[in-house]
Design goal:
With 93 residues, this protein is mainly α. It has four helices and no strands. The longest helix is centred in the last third of the chain and has 17 residues, at 76-92.
Amino acid sequence: MMTMLASVDTKCDGLPLPNPDATGDELFRLGLLYSTGQGGAPLDYVSAHMLFNLAAMRGSMEAKVYRKEIAGEMASEDVAEAQRQARQWLAQG
């Protein structure tokens, strides 16, 4: 599980966290990294779902498709955690 912060920070695995003013496309691309475990990101469906959710809220149509797809592969409590993290990230921004 990861904690999203409102400012760019470096996690222990080296990936920067999104800024509060990140665009839908930026959030979507970061979600892709987490959903595939590429680009230095760990394979983390909770983080990927959270990022796709935020990207969808900021207008990324692709993110809506990916969010729905990844949610089908996740336990309901993990989807709930991803939604909680998205709300927390929004509240901090």
